[in-house]
Amino acid sequence: MNTMNPTITKEADHQEVEAVAPVREQPEETIIEEGKTVGEPFADNAKFKLRDVNVSYGDTRAIKNISLDVAKNEVIAFIGPSGCGKSTFLRCLNRMNDSIEICKVTGSLQLDDQDIYDRRRDVVELRARVGMVFQKPNPFPKSIYDNVAYGPRIHGLANRKSDLDDIVENSLRKAGLWGEVKDRLDATATGMSGGQQQRLCIARAIAVSPEVILMDEPCSALDPIATARVEELMAEMSESYTIVIVTHSMQQAARVSNRTAYFHLGHLVEVNETNKVFTSPEHELTESYITGRFG
Ligand SMILES: Nc1ncnc2c1ncn2[C@@H]1O[C@H](COP(=O)(O)OP(=O)(O)OP(=O)(O)O)[C@@H](O)[C@H]1O
Q1: pTM of the predicted protein model
Q2: Contact yes or no for 50/95 (Cβ under 8 A)
Q3: What CA–CA distance (Å, rounded) separates 89 from 38?
Q4: Is 97's C-beta closer than 6 angstroms to any atom of ligand 1?
Q5: CB 154 within 8 Å of CB 125
Q6: Residue 295 CB less than 6 A away from ligand 1
Q7: What is the pLDDT of residues 81-137, one digit of tens each?
Q8: Which residues form the ABC transporter domain (predicted)?
Q9: Fewer CB within a 10 Å sphere, N or C end of the chain?
Q10: ipTM associated with this complex
Q11: Is residue 281 lining ligand 1, measured as CB closer than 6 Å?
Q12: Burial class (CB in 10 A: 0-12, 13-18, 19+), 204
């Protein structure tokens, strides 16, 4: 870990980030010590142990020496201005960055004390354990039933049709969708409303019995009613799953999460109980962001 000899980074240096995603009234005088996060980034019952994580796209550093634990069965929200690295960091947790050729991830990333980036690791199995829900609902152009049954089929989770039927029904129930679709399971999923499609994608993730669900701005394409439904669902799901959510909405982070992590230009500035982050943040950058001074 680099905290013994932290690199001092002046934030005005990072033109490449600002060029892509302009951040208003960046407090330029604020110095962030690389690898130094204020608050409570570590947990006793860690599901993920992430240490000294760096991510680059070619020559551009997007994640700068971040260390964080994600606790079992917590809901942790990643917030911060556009381009600060929230999605990049989230995608490390189930190796979704693997498909980006110029993306290089270094550091120690462990799930249940096992290296996520071990060469021998089966990435398909990893992504079944660590499921993902994306910003835009992305159901397959198949029936509602087949969308949910797809994962269990390829992972061999059901031997008989009746087992598969049970998995589909249970997953749709957990996603709060069963009542709305039980009479039209053969209808095509792309004909559903956006909110229903997103809950279908959650059902699809749940169907392979994941331990963790990563959510990358899951409500940004939804109206307020559909958003409220997904947030209710997250509260129910948090009893069974560890949830990591990237959100642009501070209100959403405040409503759904136990802990909040504030990212800034690739640094993890602060991690604390959500209530503390929004009522008495420790770092001046967190305070500036949550009070709307920039971002
Ligand atoms: N595929 C990619 N290739 C090159 N650079 C990328 C790629 N994806 C992200 N980046 C860069 O990495 C940095 C972090 O981006 P990232 O999308 O992780 O930020 P974010 O905080 O999730 O942003 P937003 O809130 O706008 O979604 C940005 O400078 C971005 O331009």
Answers
A1: 0.89
A2: no
A3: 18
A4: no
A5: no
A6: no
A7: 999 999 999 999 999 999 999 999 999 999 999 999 999 999 999 999 999 999 999
A8: 48-290
A9: N
A10: 0.98
A11: no
A12: buried
